[in-house]
Design goal:
Elements: E1 3-7, E2 9-11, H1 19-22, E3 26-28, H2 29-41, E4 45-46, E5 59-66, H3 71-80, E6 86-89, H4 91-96, H5 100-110, H6 116-123, H7 126-131, H8 136-147, H9 162-170, E7 174-175, H10 190-206, E8 215-216, H11 224-230, E9 237-238, E10 249-250, E11 253-254
Parallel strand pairs: 1-5, 1-11, 2-3, 4-5, 5-6, 6-7, 8-9, 9-10
């Protein structure tokens, strides 16, 4: 099987106190360059996920989840080397420059007064398991009610803008469906899931994609019902770095700082 690589953030330097390194959803720039050097040294060809059906053992598919703004520099380096990749951006993240989980992470990293039990729950993912099912509006309501935090902590331009995404599409970078709200697909009623998929597809088309996009499940969660519905929108379905529930879902290799 060809290698399908999964990345999230590419930050300038490794920082052991950074939430994204602690949750292993970031790699340093040096680690990223090491990865690209190895792909070149192995004589592999990078392809967009839309070409999975044409893959050979020497094919490598580089994917970026969520569409973080720091991906722009990383993808420019890919293009400079004659490589390509596929981004799975989230419509609301790009348009609103807000994500509940990233706001939670920002509060963690900017607050020295956070209770130890709450800090531990954020780092080990227990709070994330709740936040990933919430809309932004519901998250903000609960954040204020439970923790007394009324203001967003996110920095501006945490995510790629629509203009940047369109520019990357024009450069040959692929885009795929990752939902509009980043909520777990398997937790959504059928009508809401179909709305997420169709609106995400319409958004990607407005950004310039011309081929049928692949679907990447938010948080990797899926079941037979989810796969059946998503298969109506794409023939390529991507999970995370664990055994998929359904054989139709492609497993990805999680690129980490220490691997």
């Amino acid at each position: 099987m060809p290698s399908v690589l999964m990345l999230h953030r590419v930050l300038q330097e490794y920082d052991p106190d950074n939430y994204y390194f602690q949750r292993r959803t970031a790699i340093s720039w040096g680690r990223f360059i090491q990865l690209l050097d190895k792909i070149e040294a192995d004589g592999c060809e990078t392809l967009p996920v839309s070409a999975l059906g044409k893959a050979s053992p020497q094919s490598v598919f580089i994917t970026f989840d969520d569409g973080y703004a720091d991906n722009f520099r990383a993808i420019k380096e890919l293009l400079r080397r004659g490589m390509t990749a596929t981004i799975f951006p989230v419509r609301n993240f790009s348009q609103q420059q807000f994500s509940a989980i990233d706001d939670m992470a920002a509060n963690l990293m900017m607050s020295d007064a956070m209770p130890a039990d709450l800090r531990a729950s954020i780092i080990n993912g227990r709070i994330k398991k709740i936040a990933r099912r919430l809309s932004s509006e519901r998250y903000r309501f609960l954040r204020a009610k439970l923790f007394g935090i009324a203001e967003d902590r996110l920095i501006e331009k945490l995510f790629l803008t629509e203009q940047q995404l369109s520019e990357l599409v024009d450069s040959g970078i692929g885009l795929g469906i990752h939902g509009c709200s980043h909520r777990i697909f398997s937790s959504l009623p059928e009508d809401i899931l179909e709305k997420e998929l169709q609106e995400s597809l319409d958004w990607l088309i407005s950004l310039g994609i011309s081929k049928q996009p692949a679907i990447c499940f938010p948080h990797g969660a899926h079941d037979e019902r989810t796969v059946e519905i998503c298969s109506q929108y794409s023939k390529y379905l991507l999970g995370v770095d664990c055994k998929p529930v359904c054989k139709e879902v492609h497993r990805r290799i999680h690129v980490k700082e220490d691997t």
